[in-house]
Amino acid sequence: MYSLILLNGGIGTRVGANQPKQLLKLRGIPILVYALVMANRVEKIDQIVLNYPPEWKESVEQVLEDYAISTPVTLVEAGDSRHSSVAAMLPHCTNENVIIHEAARPLVTKKNFEDLIEDQHANVSLMTPISFTVAPVDPDTREVTGSLERDQLRNVQLPQKFSKADLVDAHSQAEKDKKVFTEDATLVAVAGHPVYFIDGSDVNFKVTTPTDLRMAGFLLRPEEEDDD
Amino acid sequence: MTKTALVTGASRGIGLETVHRFIHNSEDITTVVMFARKSDDFDEAVEELRSSSPVGRKIITRYVDVGDRDSLIENLESVHEEVGNIDILVNNAGYTNPIPLQQAEIEDFEKTMNVNVYAPFLIVKTLLNKGNVFKLIVNIASTAGINGRSGWLTYSASKAAVINMSQVMREELAIYGTRVVCLSPGRTATALRRTLAPDEDPDTIMQPEHVARVIETFASPVGRFIDSENIVVRQ
């Protein structure tokens, strides 16, 4: 069985609202609900560890009650960064295997979770090919310093799954080395534990800007709006 | 996989015919919960259903006036406790008192809204809040909700609300994979129709079983291929 670490602690300054973006409405439903309802339908997830921005605990609890999320939920206050939030949520996970997802990816599907769980490896992330060129640069001199092989790069998505022991070890190594990571697949790989990827989907994007919000709403509209 | 259905207004007309078809024709609906006000008609219908139902079918009944919110919620909670998940819900119970605008009382308008609009809303909300995942919700509206009819202000307005509410339910419940169907029957030989058109010969118009057949189709495997925004059923 799996514990889901559902990251929900962001304040969402880029989306331009006066409340956490996860509580903004997407087609009339709080964004957080989409990932919660999908995770609630995955049989192999029997615990959700959910964090919340300071001062927003009651609103998050209300969502859990209103949408009758039956999987047991452990609430943890968000840390200063995504990295510190995951570190703080890990000790609350009761299973040996964990899945990490973020509420700001509302288009995640039940199948995304199930594909991840079914993969034979312990540490796996959804990733997509990169359709554009990424250049290494020196930001101070603004000089392009070389070239990267696009085939050997991937856009890291969530959800991801890890052996809890590997993830705990990777976080403790990063703390010792005073390194901060923006996500956990590369964190665990750098710590020396093998991490693999399966193909993600371009619709499972992170809602960050007002345009993303509109795009997600467009993708979630009833299918008949595509009819002739 | 076996399914449980809840039908309101189940003592007669479209509701009773729907229960009949679920009990006798459906391969996977094994439990049917019937909500209706207490009446001899209801008791007799249930007795007849129980004596004729195939082996393995379960009929559960509750005397409920869906316009009485406290009683409605209490019965929903006890039924959910007893049968577990309600897979198919048919919001059929209806009320009307056709009165010209100048004579209509606000209390009667409120009663109409209570039965026709607030009850379906409360049933869906109460069960959702308890973690119920519906596969199919059928809301019975009316062609009078598409075009208002002179003398039927309260009824027409309430059914217009049902049509609109169904569209919202359909969008909001898509995350659970729930299908929400709104059916708008035209003239159907029901007790409610007799109130609306007392001089009409009921043999000349659509019968409740015709509407029930459409509901049965929506509840069958082929139902998911039919666009369900607002289906008009008329003769």
UniProtKB/TrEMBL annotation, chain A:
Top-rank taxon, per record: Bacteria
Keyword Transferase: yes
One Gene Ontology term of the molecular function aspect: 2-C-methyl-D-erythritol 4-phosphate cytidylyltransferase activity
UniProt keyword terms in alphabetical order: Nucleotidyltransferase, Transferase
InterPro entries according to UniProt: IspD/TarI, IspD/TarI_cytidylyltransf_bact, Nucleotide-diphossugar_trans
Keyword hit for Transferase: yes
Pfam families: IspD
Protein name from the UniProt record: 2-C-methyl-D-erythritol 4-phosphate cytidylyltransferase
Provenance organism: Brachybacterium endophyticum
TrEMBL record, chain B:
Example GO BP: monocarboxylic acid metabolic process
Gene3D superfamilies per the UniProt record, alphabetical: NAD(P)-binding Rossmann-like Domain
Superkingdom field: Bacteria
CDD domains: SDR_c
InterPro entries with a match to the protein in the record: NAD(P)-bd_dom_sf, Sc_DH/Rdtase_CS, SDR, SDR_fam
Recorded family membership: Belongs to the short-chain dehydrogenases/reductases (SDR) family.
Name this polypeptide is given: Short-chain dehydrogenase
Lineage, uppermost ranks: Bacteria, Bacillati, Actinomycetota, Actinomycetes, Micrococcales
